[in-house]
């Protein structure tokens, strides 16, 4: 019998949809061009879906053509990073500093002034207009 990868007593399982749980707590990825914010032009602040921490301003959002919302800067220090060697690659994972939710990854091919591209899953965000 195969054991479930999801912890049985995880309180997040009762608070999140299965897609939200997969991305935010299991470090999954939503398919490109499917998230509600990948091409959104609405103004506001993108907060962590799990805890509500302010993560990104729409003023730093840009169209990277990747199919995920992309930002060139996070709000203050609410986003933390960590080395990610999953899937046989070396990447930099972006996490909510407050609750540890997986947001996506950070790459160094973004626009000025930072040169960064925070490639973030829509399902991990909630836009506060």
TrEMBL record:
Signal peptide: none
Gene3D superfamilies referenced in this protein's UniProt entry, alphabetically: Peptide methionine sulfoxide reductase
Designated name of the protein: peptide-methionine (R)-S-oxide reductase
GO molecular function: metal ion binding; peptide-methionine (R)-S-oxide reductase activity
GO biological process, one term: protein repair
Organism: Nitrosotalea devaniterrae
EC number: 1.8.4.12
Lineage, highest ranks first: Archaea, Nitrososphaerota, Nitrososphaeria, Nitrosotaleales, Nitrosotaleaceae
Pfam families named in the record: SelR
InterPro entries associated with the record: Met_Sox_Rdtase_MsrB (IPR028427), Met_Sox_Rdtase_MsrB_dom (IPR002579), Mss4-like_sf (IPR011057)
